[in-house]
Amino acid sequence: MAGEFVKFATVQSVMNIVTSELGLATPSFYVGNTDLTISQLMAMLTSAGQDLCMMNDWQYLHKEWTLPVIAGTTVYQLPTDWNSFVDGTMWNTGTALPVIGPITPQVWRMLKARFVGGTTISIMYRIIGNQMILFQNPSQNVNLVTDYYSRGWILQVDGITFRDNPAADSDTLLFDSRIVVPLLKLRWRGEKGFDTSKSTQDFNDAWDLVVGRDIPAPTLSIGTRTIYPFLNYTNIPDTNYGT
C-alpha cells in the first residue's frame, strides 16, 4: 500500500540508526550539533556520501542534460551537480549525429595544428577547467543532449533542490541506508582505532546486495544465435515505415 515503503531515509533517520547501533547517545538533532562525536559523525556522513557518488554508477544519480549551443560560442559551463558523463550518450539533435569526445589533449592539438574541422566533422569537445569546450564554432544553434551522473546525493525537503552535503535533518539521502549505515560505522570504528574486520565484512555484504539490485542486468548469451529474433532497436529503420 502507498506510504508503507521508504527506500530513501532522512538524515535524522539514518543517523539515529548509526548512533543506536554504535551504542552512542541519540541526540534530538544532528545538523549544527556541536557535540564532538555527533559533529564527527556528520563530517563522516558528508565524506561518505561524496565518496559513494564515485564508487558506482547509481541509477538515481543518472540525469539528462540538454545543452543549447549558440552559433559562434564554444565554451559552456557544465551542470553545477555534474560528476561525469555517461560514455557515448551525447548526440546532436539537429543533425542526429553523435558528438565526439571528450577528445584527448594530443588529438586536440593535432586538430588545431592541421586546422581540421568544418562541416565534414561532427561536433567535438573536451573537458578542461570544469568547462565543456567545443572544437568548432558552430554555424547555427543546435541542442546537444547527453546523460550524466550527478553529485547531488541529498534532496532537500522542498523536493527540488539537490546538494552534496546535508543542510538539515529533514534532508533525504539518495543512497540506500543499508550501505550508508555500515559505511559510517566502519569509518567511525576505524577512526577510533577499533577492530574493523566485522564492520568491513558488513559493509562489503551490504554493498553487494545494494549494487546488485540498483540496475537490472542484461540477459547475456554464449550461443551462436540471438535469443530474441524479433524487431527491436537494432534492426528497424528510423524512417520510411509503410513504403
* Rg for CA atoms: 23 Å
Largest sheet: 5 strands, antiparallel
Low-confidence residue ranges: none
**Helicity, as a percent range:** 25-40%
Q: Looking at the structure, what is the overall shape?
A: elongated
Q: Roughly how many Å apart are the termini?
A: 49 Å
Number of helices in the DSSP assignment: 5
Tell me the domain tally: 2
What is the succession of H and E elements? HHEEEEEHEEEEEEHH
The helix/strand class is alpha+beta
Name the average pLDDT.
88
Name the beta content range. Answer: 15-25%
Please report the total strand number as a whole number: 11
Descriptive terms for the model:
30% helix; 243 residues; 5 helices; three-stranded antiparallel sheet; alpha+beta; 2 domains; single chain; 17% strand; five-stranded antiparallel sheet
Précis, in short:
The chain has 243 residues and is an alpha+beta fold.
